[in-house]
Amino acid sequence: MKSSVPSGPRRERGRAHTVLALLTTGTLLLTSACAVANSDAAGDAGSADGRTLRLVLTQEPPTLEPCESSLTATGVVVRSNITEPLVERDPTSGKLDPLLATGWRQTKPTTWTFDIRPGVKFQNGQPFTAKDAAFSIDRAVNSDLACNVDGYVFGDEKLEVHTVSPTRLTVTTEKTDPILPLRLSFVEIVPRTTSTKAKVRIPIGTGPYAVKSWQTGVSISLARNEDYWGKAPAYPRARYVWRSDASVRAAMIDKGEADIATALDHTSADKGNTVAYPNNETTALRLDGREAPLDDIRVRKAIGMAVDRKGIIDALLGGLAKPAAQLVPPGVVGHNDDLAPVPYKVAAARALVKQAAADGVPVHRQITLVARNGMFAGISEVAEALQYEMARVGLNVRIRMADTATHLQYQLRPLPRDVGPVALLIMHGNQAGDAAFTTSQYLVSDGPQSTFGTKELDRRIAAADALSGKARAKAFAEVLGYQNETVAQYAYLAHMRGLLGLSPKVRYRPDSATGDEMRLAEVSPAKAGRH
Amino acid sequence: MTSFLRKRIISSAIPLVFVVLGVFCLARLTGSPVDLYLPLSATPQQRAEFSAAHGFDDSIPVQLWDYLTNAAQLDFGTSLRTGESAGSMVLKAFPVTLQLAGMTMLLAILGALLVGSLAAYRPNSLIDRIAGLLSMTAASIPDFWFAIVGVLVFGVGLDWLPTSGTLGGPEIWVLPIATLLIRPFGVLVQVVRGSMVGALSAPYVKVARSKGADPKRVVFGHALRNSITPVLTVAGDLTVGLVNGAVVVETIFGWPGIGKLMIDSILQRDFAVLQAAVLLTAVTIFALNILVDVCHALIDPRVRQAVPA
């Protein structure tokens, strides 16, 4: 029996079929496109053939320009892998070791002479001479390229560079600089054919690896430099990929998709596949001493006493940090071994705040605690704990979580106006190994990352900076103690530790420089599954 | 049909203009990118030169005019981060997202039609209840949580799928698409079921059933066809929402698509790339809306007549 329900005019059915056909065609097109994209069966990080070292980073480097190597994301790929400096600092002992310079000495109070290593070639086959070293220093420090290494390492200093011979170089500073070789360890050497007008995307250096390809958004591949002047690295190839989520990076190690993963999170990483290491980073609250109630030293010291460092470290940082009493960690020249973290004393802190209130300090004025998303794992919880602890001693705190650009507006001079009192949660890494790099930024009155200071502190910092050797270390240690007593711009939290994911297939010992400079030549295949 | 199309284009173009202008102005309210791109020691002259070179020293109306006149000539500026053309960066990233979104919506629609129809065929049956529970759960699960759990369970625990990445066999598509799929699928099953239940209780279906028509033909032939209009409308809206999902999926699984590009551009204050990405996405959504409306009108002639003059 024929149904009496109309099936619709033929034209209407045709339209429905058109829609279906569109959907089907779309699927076929998309599927075929996928097939094109999936031509490499080895995966983003490369195949596990034992010849490619596979690394997963937190983010894609914004650039591989060597003069931007003081940026963590750039330096971790470039430094000592693709390009090399004249001198390198041993991250453990702090000693300076020869690299592209075989020796150096202070020939005049303001002049240092460097002997250049002979027989070294760049990855493009060009020989390396003193002229290349002079060119690289000029390009990074004296040019208009606005390189980051210029700002972080040399400040406003200009250098005069001369080549005495193909293997000798002199560098003259405006005033005596006892740590110039250490500063120059941050200048990566490039051939003198490199552009001085623009930053380069793919660098050429003298390092053990050369850039083979950079597939934007996906991976960076390196190939072993077969003409490398030093010991050949174990892996012929290295490949970097990036995943912003720490649990995915940890999963890649656990599943064998990557050999090394940076910046893991203790909450998601398998302890069997991770190694903790001191990363020279220190967290602290920078207190804006220009604004009430933070302009009162009793309030600033009360904040230091209100912080339960051990509790925060144990509960929120996985025990991977140590309570801090200063901005520089042990191992850095100028670290003061005698300083102990401020004891956790809530009642005493509350009494200090009350004293200040009795003297008319507006302790109930709202303080903004600014923290940066992603600064370290558990940052939001730490900010909330600090807010609670500060409130407990009688202060009124609100939290503002910011992205990097917004955080920088609070961190760098010129500081924002009309934003009230700010307690900025900072994480400072002193990778250079000398307290001068910290004090010049964070402690002098007009430091780019300092809110205030005193003339006496400035004088002591300048005096310490002119010294060398043990006298220098002692003077900076005294500066750090003096700051805590008389200025108290910082409420320290912790000296942090990094967590590196390490496959059982590779052997590598991370050190305090690993987060900024991971030397691939130090990685080798593991024997019997040992790191 | 031409009149219908003209009216729809005009009404859909208005939000597109507002989105593009809004993103342009709001991006500039977040502050200058100078601090992110120049070192601490940059001199005032270097800062001024950087601002002048990228047009940040002009007033916002002047910057907007420059942007619009250049965009009209398909010049979207240069990325501050990479120095590449913003247009080419966006065009490189867009197909990745398009593939993900296209595959996802197709599977979501086909799956929802099947599951929703089965559920509607016998309302309140066991199948209907299971479908209802699963679809409600799917529509409520946060996509980032689903993605991470998927990686841990299917990537690490069971070792069936890769954890992430864009290179490999068809298996690399499973987790990203499943993550993107879960919410639209859940919503669409609800829509299909609701629409089908209404259609199956309509008089013409009762008449057809009473005359002994083949039940499957009644359900999948007549009722489903008449229920498709709201499904297409909702699917269109969900596709627009996939850009949000793409941000999560592309970030977690390392896919270099438009969602990740937008987030990176916002964080890095890379205005040229952000503007180009938003413009292309907005135009795509605009075109998609028109396409959905046209499909809608082709299937249901009442829609063409319903558009006010």
UniProtKB/TrEMBL annotation, chain A:
<dbReference type="GO" id="GO:1904680">
    <property type="term" value="F:peptide transmembrane transporter activity"/>
</dbReference>
<keyword id="KW-0732">Signal</keyword>
<dbReference type="Pfam" id="PF00496">
    <property type="entry name" value="SBP_bac_5"/>
</dbReference>
<dbReference type="InterPro" id="IPR000914">
    <property type="entry name" value="SBP_5_dom"/>
</dbReference>
<feature type="domain" description="Solute-binding protein family 5">
    <location>
        <begin position="96"/>
        <end position="408"/>
    </location>
</feature>
<dbReference type="GO" id="GO:0015833">
    <property type="term" value="P:peptide transport"/>
</dbReference>
<feature type="signal peptide">
    <location>
        <begin position="1"/>
        <end position="37"/>
    </location>
</feature>
<comment type="similarity">
    <text>Belongs to the bacterial solute-binding protein 5 family.</text>
</comment>
<dbReference type="InterPro" id="IPR039424">
    <property type="entry name" value="SBP_5"/>
</dbReference>
<feature type="region of interest" description="Disordered">
    <location>
        <begin position="511"/>
        <end position="531"/>
    </location>
</feature>
<keyword id="KW-0813">Transport</keyword>
<protein>
    <submittedName>
        <fullName>Peptide ABC transporter substrate-binding protein</fullName>
    </submittedName>
</protein>
Automatic annotation (TrEMBL), chain B:
<dbReference type="InterPro" id="IPR000515">
    <property type="entry name" value="MetI-like"/>
</dbReference>
<feature type="transmembrane region" description="Helical">
    <location>
        <begin position="133"/>
        <end position="160"/>
    </location>
</feature>
<feature type="domain" description="ABC transmembrane type-1">
    <location>
        <begin position="94"/>
        <end position="292"/>
    </location>
</feature>
<protein>
    <submittedName>
        <fullName>ABC transporter permease</fullName>
    </submittedName>
</protein>
<feature type="transmembrane region" description="Helical">
    <location>
        <begin position="12"/>
        <end position="31"/>
    </location>
</feature>
<keyword id="KW-0812">Transmembrane</keyword>
<dbReference type="GO" id="GO:0005886">
    <property type="term" value="C:plasma membrane"/>
</dbReference>
<keyword id="KW-0472">Membrane</keyword>
<keyword id="KW-0813">Transport</keyword>
<keyword id="KW-1003">Cell membrane</keyword>
<feature type="transmembrane region" description="Helical">
    <location>
        <begin position="172"/>
        <end position="192"/>
    </location>
</feature>
<feature type="transmembrane region" description="Helical">
    <location>
        <begin position="98"/>
        <end position="121"/>
    </location>
</feature>
<dbReference type="InterPro" id="IPR035906">
    <property type="entry name" value="MetI-like_sf"/>
</dbReference>
<feature type="transmembrane region" description="Helical">
    <location>
        <begin position="271"/>
        <end position="292"/>
    </location>
</feature>
<comment type="similarity">
    <text>Belongs to the binding-protein-dependent transport system permease family.</text>
</comment>
<dbReference type="Pfam" id="PF00528">
    <property type="entry name" value="BPD_transp_1"/>
</dbReference>
<keyword id="KW-1133">Transmembrane helix</keyword>
<dbReference type="GO" id="GO:0071916">
    <property type="term" value="F:dipeptide transmembrane transporter activity"/>
</dbReference>
